[in-house]
Amino acid sequence: MKNTTSTTPAVYVGLDVHKSSITVAYALPGGGDPVYHGKLGGSNAALANGLVKLRKKLDVPKEALRICYEAGPTGFVAARRLIELGYDTIVVAPSKIERAAGDRVKTDKKDALKLARLHRSGDLKGIHIPDPTDEAVRDVCRARTDASEDRRKAKQRLSAFLLRNGIHYTGKSKWTAAHMRYLRDLKLPSAAHQFVLEEYLQAIDSAHDRAERLADHLETLLLTWERADHVLALMAMRGFKLVAAMTIISELGDLSRFKHPRQLMAYLGLVPGEHSSGQRRRQGGITKCGNGHARWMLIECATHYRLKPKVATPLSYRQDGQSKAVKALSWRAQNRLFNRYVKLSMRRLHHNKVTVAVARELSAFIWELAGIVDTELTAQSHQK
Prior knowledge:
With 384 residues, the chain is α/β, with parallel strands linked by helices. It folds into three domains: 11-121, ATPase, nucleotide binding domain (Nucleotidyltransferase, domain 5), CATH 3.30.420; 132-226; 230-383, no CATH class. It contains 13 helices and seven strands. The strands form two sheets. A five-stranded mixed beta sheet has the order 3-2-1-4-5. Strand 2 and strand 3 (35-41) form a beta hairpin. Helix 8 packs antiparallel against helix 10 (292-302), helix 9 (261-267) packs across helix 13 (351-383) and helix 12 (324-346) runs antiparallel to helix 13 (351-383). The longest helix is centred in the middle third of the chain and has 34 residues, at 191-224. The two termini are 46 Å apart. Residues 1-5 have low confidence and may be disordered.
C-alpha cells in the first residue's frame, strides 16, 4: 500500500446500491472508460471489505477514493458508514443525473459505470446527508403523519358506509365528541352492518390513539434534541405548533447550508417551473422538486396567514421565553403574509395558488428565523 500523500490521483467510484447487492465500478484519472469491478453483498460490512480489496487492486490509499451513489430506498446508512471510515462519499439525487432520451437499457453495471464517469467529470453534486438524530426525529414525524392519514381514511370510509345505508347526521359538526357518541349509540337493523360500524369505529380510535402516542413521543424527543431551540423559535410563529415545527425542522435540518432563501424555496419545490425561449417567457406550476413532506406541511401552515394579524393567547404562550428578535420576526411575518394573501386574492387567483405563494414567502421567514437562532446560540456559547 502506498503512503498517503496529497498528490495521490483520485479514483472515482460509482456504486449502484440495492437491498441485497452493491455493484461497483471505478474511473481512473486522466480519461479512459470506467472499469467494472464487481458485485458485493448489500451489507455495510461487505461494502467496507469490498473497498479494501479495490484499494489493494489499484494500490491506492483510502483518501484517494471518491465514492458516490444514487439516493434511494436504502437511505443514507451506507454513506454514513463510509464517511465514518474516512472515505470521501457523496449521495446524488437521481433527478440530477443526466439520462439520454433514447436510452432504453438499464442495468446495475451500466448505472455504476455511468456514476463513476460522471463523478470523474465533475457533473455530480451531492445532496445533504441528514444527521442520524434528525433523521430519527423525522421518521417519528412521518409516522405521526401516517397515523393521521390513516385516521382520515377511516373516517372517510365510515362516512361512505353510512351514506350508502341512508344514515345522515343532523348535528352541527362531524367528528366532534357529540358526533362520536352518536355513532357509538347508533343501532343498525342488520347485524352485519352493526359489525361493520363497530370495526370502522375501532379503526378510527386505533389511528387516533396511535397519532396521540407519536405526538407525545415527539414532546419527549424535543427535550434532548439539539435543534430544540430552532423548534421552539418556529413555534413562536403563527400556524406552527409542536408537530408542525418539529416536522419542518427535522425535514430541513441545518438551514445554514442554504446561502439564500431562494435556494430553500427551490429545495422545497415551491418555485414556478419555466419554459422560456427567444422572446417568449412562460411559467407554469411549481416544480414540486425536493422535500415533499416539508412542502406539504409548510403549505398547511401557510393557510393560517389568511387571518388578520393577531397574537392570540395560544401564540403568546408559545412565545414565552423567546427573544425580541424572534417575536419581531413573527409579527413582521404575520403582517407581510396577510397583506400578500389579500392582494393575491383580490386578483381573483385560485386560493391554492395564493396559499402556495404565501408558503413560498413563509419559507424565507423560516430561513431568516434559523439565522437568528444560530446567532443567539453562538453568542450564548461565547458568553460561557
